[in-house]
Input
Amino acid sequence: MAPKSINASRTTLTELMIPSYANFGGKIHGGILLSLMDKVAFACASKHSGAYCVTVSVEGVNFRQAVEVGELVSLMASVNYVGRTSMVIGIKVIAENVRTGSVKHTNTSYFTMVATDDDHKPTEVPPLLLESPDDTRRFLEAMKRKELKEIHREEFDNEKSRLRVEDGGLDILKNERCVVKS
Output
């Protein structure tokens, strides 16, 4: 399978934020933005793999700034990393006020997508051709995020097995804003 460049699947989705997308606070609902991120991740991953892709995880969805009704939101996606059947899609989201010309970076996120065949089984994806130092840096960063995610999962599983409500040991909750009903 021949490697594919990042530019071959780079995808941008731009959409006008309309009043029906607003939450009760008058800002664009986070769920709308998540849906748009999922769409652009799918498009980018499908272009790279040539296959139908499914979302298996989402990392780093931190809303740095609110998005307003009337702004144009652009979601820029690229393949940052590929495994055998999976791809990490990096997504940068910006919002632009076309009247004032101001542009703000609202969030960056990473979607892990898996390519599937006609039987809905994972299928191999092309290797990624790294053509610049930025391409290589993003690939290495994705590898490190994957490694740290696995370490965190193992540590959390270990801690979970140590947290026993039945054994007492709830002193850790004494300065928290909760009440344990006996």
Notes: The chain has a mean pLDDT of 94. The beta strands are 4-5, 11-16, 52-59, 72-82, 86-96, 103-116, 128-129. The two ends are 61 Å apart (CA to CA).
